[in-house]
Structures are given as C-alpha cells and as structure tokens.
Design goal:
six-stranded antiparallel β-barrel; eight-stranded antiparallel β-sheet; 23% helix; Thrombin, subunit H; Pdz3 Domain; 12 helices; globular; alpha+beta; single chain
Length: 468
Amino acid sequence: MRDKQRTGILLALLISALLLPSILQAAPKGAGLQDTILNIEEEVLSALVNIQPVTETFTRGEKRKRASVGSGFLIDKKGHIVTNYHVAGKAQQVMVTLSNKERVSAELIGGDAQTDLAVIKIPQEVVSNFNLHPLSFGSSSALKVGEFVIALGSPLALARTMTFGIVSNRERYLPQGMTLPSGERTGDFNTWIQTDAAINPGNSGGPLVNLRGEVIGVNARGAMFADNIGFAIPADTASSVVADLIEVGEVERAFIGVDFQPLKDWEQLFGLSQPEGVLVGSIEKGGPGELAGLEAGDILLRYGDEELNVRFEEELPALYQLIASSEVGIKVPLTVLRQGLAEKLALTVNTISTGAVSGERFDAAKWSFTVKDITDQMVFELELLGSDGVLVEGVRTGGAAHRGGLRRGVVIEAVEGERIKSLQDFEQHYESLTKAETPRVLLQVRRYESQAYVLLQINRREGKDSAQ
C-alpha cells in the first residue's frame, strides 16, 4: 500500500514538473498561475455581459413569447457584443446586464445560424460611461491540446461565472444535422474546440479565453449526460463571421447544393489504394451541383485549383468553407472519379444568405397551426420536391387542423384550390378566408411523393378555434 502511495506521489510530482514550464510560458513574466487567473478576471470581467432576450417561438402550432438567459462579450468601443445565434439571433427584445450590474437595452445587429453566432449592440456612451474594456480575438489555430483556458458566462443564470480547464481537442467534429433550438442546422462550416472547463446552459455566447486574456472561442454548448465536455466556436471562424454581421447584418456564402461524405468508410468499396478526394453523398435537385453533372457516388478529386483529400469527418468543414468562399457566378472546374475514370466538369456557383437558410414563419392561429417559408436549403435538407408551398411547422393539439388530420412536416400546396407559391401567398389566402369567416377550408398537402386533402372545420367560440 505504501509503495502505491509513493508511486502516486512521484507520478503527481512528475506531471507537475512537466506542466510547470507551459504554465509559466503562458503566464505574464513573474506571475504564477493563480496571479495570472486573477489578472484575467480583472481584465476580462468588464467585457462580460448577461443577456436576457425575448424571442418568438413557434411551438405545437402556436406563436409564443419566451424569455431566456445567455451570455456575451464586448468586442469594441462602439458597443458591439458577440453572442450565440440561439441566444439572440431571433430576439424581439434584448436586455443586457453589465458586469457592474447596470441594465441597458440592446439592438440585434445580425445573426448567422450556420455558425450559431450573433451580434447585438449597446449604446456607445454606455461603454465609455462605465469604462468597459472590450476583448480581442486571438488565434484559435495556434491552440494546443492541453493549453489552459477559462470559460466565462452565466451558467444556469448564475451571472459573472468563471470556470477553468484545458483544451481537450481543438478540431472536434459534431455530426451533421445538429440543429439549434430554433430549428436551423449548424456546424457545417467549423469544427469545435472541446474543453473540460465547465460549459452549461446559460454559458452560451460567453468567451473562452486563454491565459493572455484573448478570446480563442465562443462558448456554444455542453454535452448532455456527460461531465467536463463543452464546445466552443473557434475564434478564427467567429472573428470572420462577426465582421460580416457588423458590416452587412448577415453572411453570404457560395452554395452548390451538394452534401459530402468522408472516404474512410468507402475506401475498400471503391478500391482506392491511395485515398484522395471526397465522396459526393447527395445532390439538390436542380441545384448547381446537379446542373454541372455531379452524381451521388462520384468522388470529387479537385475543386477549382484545390486538390481534395477528405478521409475523416473533421476535414469536412474546411471543404464547405472552401466552397462557401467561392466567387458567386463564376464557373469552377471540377475533376471527378466516376466508375474508375476521371472526368472534367464545370460548375456555376450560386449564393445563399443567412435569411435564405432560416425561412420566415407565420402563425395561422385561427386554423390552429404554424407554417414556415420553404427555402432552397430546406428543399435540400428535407428532400422536398421544390420550394413552392409552405411547410407545416407545428399543429395545436385539439384544434381544427389537428382534428382534420394535418400533421407537422407536410407541405401545403393549395388552399381552396388556389396554388400556394410562397409564404406571402398563404398569408393572403389566410387573411381573406378568416375575414370572411369561412367555416370550412380545404387544404391540398404533400408529404414526399404522396398527396392528400385536409378539411378544416372551424368553430369559433369565445374567440378561439376548435375542430367540430
């Protein structure tokens, strides 16, 4: 037993000896780790804010207002604050509590669902009056696994909280299809910094800083049913997106309508002795990729001047970034491997903006359901036949739509025999029919290849609709 204790002590001393040089190197000269952390608390805390957004949510077929709590940090003297899209990207109203416990209102400047980032702004005079010190972005590409980091924010609404840990992994890939609470997909354009510094609900949008007080990540999410696993958006991604949001309020990206898969599971099937390229997984019907002649199962070897080699999932975001940064409208030469033979293709790049990804929503309250505009991105992701119509996002239990058999996820193609091309078309028909107090409304709907009809029988009682 004593031998085991002695061995444990020696091992602890050895680990401390190995870590000490890196601690001292990262810390200011002459300062120990404790002093460094205290200095960071003093320098960084004034930039940290607690955010209380009020957002409109479309839940179970109804539009509701919801208050929540998140975090953010000041990045300039003009009052711009960085946070997550899922915190404030759809906020109708934003209140900010500063580190000195003063409360001020903020305005939403812009948001990007695809990287889960948003920018809000407080008045410039607030920054100067309270002597707030903005934070600067550092380089996330220079991070090393094992480097000390500090996460700041308001976990579980506990404002002005710091947690300490290390970088566990600096290029973690999270599965495609990961969605935000508001329904948009995120994570295609970046890997994530994984850390064991505690990140809990409410930390979202707060800064992850190194021992020099530089922001190297934006806290985004923890892992359910796991301890000491949290994820932050890398600073290199965040700084670029934030600059676009401040300048134009959204992020425009080139779009080719192609979903890719890494080669690691397909190398033997395709008989690749020296794996290179990336597998074309699925293609949007009528999108730039299909028009260029790409087919599912192709191996894309070159995109423009870039040779591709995507064997693992964590290499996918760099490919999507490469495509997203393409000049819109130009023809990009492609080289594909198809049935063992190399072929040359040319693809004309399209564009897609943040707004075109998210889609607008509408509450058909008197018909007891909510709908969403269909974007090009949704056509691709949900495998829809086209962008005409509106997507049913939610149905209120017990309402006319629910009793008539309308279900979430179907596309409404026509109302009373009139074709629906867009959300605006649907709104006009809804307003006209509800104003006329039409007791029965016939909807033509589609789910994948199947068409059906739904009859809404509307009974108005005390201002509320229910099914007969």
